[in-house]
Amino acid sequence: MSDTFKPTAAVAKQAARGLELRQKFNRGGTQVGVARARDLKNQRNLSEDTMKRMKSYFARHKVDKRAKNFGDDDNPSAGYIAWLLWGGDAGRDWVKEQLQ
Q: How high is the pLDDT of residue 3?
């Protein structure tokens, strides 16, 4: 395992979309989520500790995917926006693969 992890283009794209939706709808995510999205969008190298926090986020928030309007870009749920801020499904899959 390397000391740092560079987010993929797919992860960066999902984070950027989350930032756009958060700005447009003024909901979803915390300041920590916004900071994470900025790092992901800019494909900054992440530490192993950050990767573990991301893994933990996805484990805790997978239930958000059951919410009404999850995945709806026209009227997204706050949970959907937050999920995207952390890299979306691409982020979840990338973190899982990297931490194996």
A: 77
